Amino acid sequence: MLRALCLFLVLTVTTAVAAPKAHELITMDGIGPAKIGMSVKELKQKLGKGYTLKKDENFMVDIEAIHVMKGDEVLYTLLFVVGEPQDAITWMVTSNPKFKLAEGVGPGSPLMAAENAYGKPYLSFSNYDEQREWVRFQNANTKFPFNLALRCKLPGDDYAGQVGQYPNYEKNLEAGKEFFETINYDPNAVVDSVWVSMMEEGC
Predict the structure, then answer these.
(1) Closest Cα to residue 133, out of 120, 117, 151, 147?
(2) CB-CB contact of 110 with 117 (8 Å)
(3) pLDDT (tens digit, 9 = 90+) per residue, 72-86?
(4) Residues of 5-16 as b/e, b for ≥16 C-beta within 10 angstroms?
(5) Where are the alpha helices (DSSP H) in the chain?
(6) What is the rounded CA–CA span in Å between residue 118 and residue 136?
(7) What phi and psi, each to the nearest 5 degrees, are found at residue 111?
(8) Share of the chain above pLDDT 70, in %
(9) pLDDT, tens digit, for every residue of 93-111?
(10) Dihedral (CA of 104, 184, 201, 132) sign
Protein backbone atom coordinates (compact mmCIF):
# COMPACT_ATOMS: atom_id res chain seq x y z
CA MET A 1 0.00 0.00 0.00
CA LEU A 2 2.78 2.40 0.97
CA ARG A 3 4.73 1.52 -2.16
CA ALA A 4 1.70 2.21 -4.34
CA LEU A 5 1.15 5.55 -2.62
CA CYS A 6 4.78 6.56 -3.17
CA LEU A 7 4.52 5.61 -6.85
CA PHE A 8 1.36 7.72 -7.17
CA LEU A 9 3.10 10.72 -5.61
CA VAL A 10 6.11 10.34 -7.89
CA LEU A 11 3.91 10.15 -10.96
CA THR A 12 1.90 13.17 -9.83
CA VAL A 13 4.98 15.33 -9.28
CA THR A 14 6.52 14.16 -12.56
CA THR A 15 3.35 15.09 -14.44
CA ALA A 16 3.22 18.50 -12.79
CA VAL A 17 6.74 19.48 -13.84
CA ALA A 18 6.84 17.73 -17.22
CA ALA A 19 8.02 20.10 -19.94
CA PRO A 20 5.58 20.80 -22.79
CA LYS A 21 6.27 19.09 -26.10
CA ALA A 22 8.15 21.26 -28.61
CA HIS A 23 5.13 21.65 -30.90
CA GLU A 24 3.02 22.83 -27.91
CA LEU A 25 5.61 25.08 -26.24
CA ILE A 26 5.09 28.83 -25.83
CA THR A 27 8.26 30.95 -25.76
CA MET A 28 9.24 34.55 -26.35
CA ASP A 29 9.88 33.49 -29.97
CA GLY A 30 6.45 32.08 -30.71
CA ILE A 31 3.91 29.32 -30.19
CA GLY A 32 4.87 25.82 -31.24
CA PRO A 33 6.33 25.91 -34.77
CA ALA A 34 5.01 29.45 -35.41
CA LYS A 35 7.81 31.94 -34.81
CA ILE A 36 7.88 35.73 -34.70
CA GLY A 37 9.35 37.03 -37.97
CA MET A 38 8.38 33.93 -39.95
CA SER A 39 6.17 34.38 -42.99
CA VAL A 40 2.78 32.68 -43.22
CA LYS A 41 4.08 30.74 -46.22
CA GLU A 42 7.03 29.45 -44.20
CA LEU A 43 4.69 28.37 -41.42
CA LYS A 44 2.48 26.48 -43.87
CA GLN A 45 5.51 24.60 -45.16
CA LYS A 46 6.64 23.78 -41.63
CA LEU A 47 3.20 22.55 -40.55
CA GLY A 48 2.79 20.12 -43.39
CA LYS A 49 -0.35 18.07 -44.03
CA GLY A 50 -3.30 17.90 -41.65
CA TYR A 51 -3.29 21.60 -40.75
CA THR A 52 -5.44 24.39 -42.16
CA LEU A 53 -5.34 28.18 -41.91
CA LYS A 54 -8.68 29.98 -41.59
CA LYS A 55 -9.17 33.75 -41.76
CA ASP A 56 -11.39 35.48 -39.19
CA GLU A 57 -12.20 39.18 -39.66
CA ASN A 58 -14.35 39.34 -36.51
CA PHE A 59 -11.72 38.28 -33.98
CA MET A 60 -10.92 41.82 -32.80
CA VAL A 61 -11.56 45.37 -33.99
CA ASP A 62 -9.08 46.42 -36.72
CA ILE A 63 -7.41 43.00 -36.60
CA GLU A 64 -7.42 40.27 -39.21
CA ALA A 65 -6.88 36.90 -37.58
CA ILE A 66 -5.69 33.65 -39.13
CA HIS A 67 -6.50 30.59 -37.06
CA VAL A 68 -4.09 27.68 -37.31
CA MET A 69 -6.26 24.57 -37.05
CA LYS A 70 -6.00 20.82 -36.92
CA GLY A 71 -9.37 19.41 -37.84
CA ASP A 72 -11.96 21.57 -36.06
CA GLU A 73 -9.56 22.54 -33.26
CA VAL A 74 -8.00 26.02 -33.16
CA LEU A 75 -4.40 25.62 -32.01
CA TYR A 76 -3.36 29.27 -32.07
CA THR A 77 -4.09 32.45 -33.97
CA LEU A 78 -1.87 34.79 -36.01
CA LEU A 79 -2.85 38.47 -35.77
CA PHE A 80 -2.35 41.24 -38.32
CA VAL A 81 -3.44 44.89 -38.27
CA VAL A 82 -5.98 45.47 -41.03
CA GLY A 83 -4.37 47.23 -43.99
CA GLU A 84 -0.80 46.43 -43.01
CA PRO A 85 1.46 43.94 -44.86
CA GLN A 86 1.28 40.32 -43.77
CA ASP A 87 4.79 39.43 -44.91
CA ALA A 88 5.95 38.52 -41.39
CA ILE A 89 4.24 37.23 -38.25
CA THR A 90 4.57 39.77 -35.44
CA TRP A 91 1.75 38.85 -33.07
CA MET A 92 0.00 35.62 -32.06
CA VAL A 93 -2.20 34.18 -29.32
CA THR A 94 -3.45 30.85 -28.03
CA SER A 95 -6.38 29.89 -25.81
CA ASN A 96 -5.74 26.19 -26.30
CA PRO A 97 -4.87 24.47 -22.98
CA LYS A 98 -2.51 22.07 -24.78
CA PHE A 99 -0.02 24.91 -25.20
CA LYS A 100 2.11 25.95 -22.23
CA LEU A 101 5.21 27.87 -21.25
CA ALA A 102 8.24 25.92 -20.02
CA GLU A 103 7.05 26.21 -16.41
CA GLY A 104 3.74 24.52 -17.27
CA VAL A 105 1.63 27.70 -17.27
CA GLY A 106 -0.88 28.17 -20.05
CA PRO A 107 -4.58 28.64 -20.84
CA GLY A 108 -6.63 27.16 -18.00
CA SER A 109 -3.88 27.55 -15.38
CA PRO A 110 -4.76 29.45 -12.18
CA LEU A 111 -3.28 32.94 -12.16
CA MET A 112 -1.84 31.99 -8.76
CA ALA A 113 0.19 29.25 -10.48
CA ALA A 114 1.57 31.87 -12.85
CA GLU A 115 2.47 34.05 -9.87
CA ASN A 116 4.32 31.13 -8.28
CA ALA A 117 6.31 30.69 -11.50
CA TYR A 118 7.03 34.31 -12.44
CA GLY A 119 6.55 36.50 -9.39
CA LYS A 120 3.99 39.15 -8.55
CA PRO A 121 1.69 39.92 -11.48
CA TYR A 122 0.89 43.41 -12.67
CA LEU A 123 -2.61 43.76 -14.11
CA SER A 124 -3.50 46.81 -16.17
CA PHE A 125 -5.96 48.18 -18.68
CA SER A 126 -6.57 51.37 -20.60
CA ASN A 127 -9.82 52.92 -21.68
CA TYR A 128 -8.09 53.54 -25.02
CA ASP A 129 -7.72 49.77 -25.50
CA GLU A 130 -11.40 48.95 -24.95
CA GLN A 131 -10.55 48.14 -21.30
CA ARG A 132 -8.74 44.93 -22.25
CA GLU A 133 -6.86 43.81 -19.17
CA TRP A 134 -3.30 42.53 -19.60
CA VAL A 135 -1.17 40.62 -17.10
CA ARG A 136 2.64 40.76 -16.95
CA PHE A 137 5.15 39.88 -14.21
CA GLN A 138 8.01 41.36 -12.22
CA ASN A 139 10.46 38.81 -13.66
CA ALA A 140 10.21 40.34 -17.13
CA ASN A 141 13.16 39.65 -19.43
CA THR A 142 13.84 36.31 -17.69
CA LYS A 143 11.19 33.60 -17.58
CA PHE A 144 8.39 35.89 -18.75
CA PRO A 145 9.79 38.58 -21.12
CA PHE A 146 8.11 41.89 -21.95
CA ASN A 147 6.78 40.56 -25.26
CA LEU A 148 4.60 37.98 -23.49
CA ALA A 149 1.27 38.77 -21.84
CA LEU A 150 -1.71 36.97 -20.37
CA ARG A 151 -5.39 37.67 -20.48
CA CYS A 152 -7.43 36.12 -17.69
CA LYS A 153 -11.00 35.31 -16.72
CA LEU A 154 -13.04 33.80 -13.91
CA PRO A 155 -14.03 30.11 -13.96
CA GLY A 156 -17.18 29.61 -16.00
CA ASP A 157 -16.67 32.71 -18.14
CA ASP A 158 -16.43 32.13 -21.89
CA TYR A 159 -14.13 35.06 -22.60
CA ALA A 160 -11.34 37.04 -20.98
CA GLY A 161 -12.40 39.93 -18.79
CA GLN A 162 -11.12 41.93 -15.84
CA VAL A 163 -9.97 39.95 -12.82
CA GLY A 164 -7.96 42.73 -11.19
CA GLN A 165 -9.17 44.71 -8.20
CA TYR A 166 -8.86 48.45 -8.81
CA PRO A 167 -9.49 50.60 -5.70
CA ASN A 168 -11.32 53.88 -6.26
CA TYR A 169 -11.90 53.06 -9.93
CA GLU A 170 -15.04 55.19 -10.30
CA LYS A 171 -13.45 58.14 -8.52
CA ASN A 172 -10.32 57.96 -10.67
CA LEU A 173 -12.40 57.59 -13.82
CA GLU A 174 -14.38 60.72 -12.97
CA ALA A 175 -11.06 62.52 -12.45
CA GLY A 176 -10.10 61.72 -16.03
CA LYS A 177 -7.70 58.86 -15.41
CA GLU A 178 -7.31 56.58 -18.47
CA PHE A 179 -4.77 53.95 -17.39
CA PHE A 180 -5.27 51.64 -14.40
CA GLU A 181 -2.84 49.20 -12.79
CA THR A 182 -2.98 46.86 -9.79
CA ILE A 183 -1.25 43.89 -8.18
CA ASN A 184 -4.47 42.66 -6.56
CA TYR A 185 -6.73 40.15 -8.30
CA ASP A 186 -9.53 37.68 -7.75
CA PRO A 187 -7.92 34.53 -6.30
CA ASN A 188 -10.14 32.38 -8.54
CA ALA A 189 -8.77 33.93 -11.74
CA VAL A 190 -7.47 31.59 -14.45
CA VAL A 191 -5.47 32.21 -17.61
CA ASP A 192 -7.67 32.62 -20.68
CA SER A 193 -4.94 33.16 -23.28
CA VAL A 194 -1.23 33.72 -23.80
CA TRP A 195 -0.08 36.42 -26.22
CA VAL A 196 3.29 36.69 -27.96
CA SER A 197 4.39 39.78 -29.86
CA MET A 198 7.55 41.05 -31.52
CA MET A 199 10.11 42.18 -28.93
CA GLU A 200 10.54 45.95 -29.00
CA GLU A 201 14.02 47.43 -29.14
CA GLY A 202 15.46 48.05 -25.69
CA CYS A 203 13.38 45.30 -24.05
Answers:
(1) 151
(2) no
(3) 999 999 999 988 888
(4) eeeeeeeeeeee
(5) 2-17, 40-47, 111-118, 169-174
(6) 9
(7) -60, -30
(8) 87
(9) 999 999 999 999 999 999 9
(10) positive
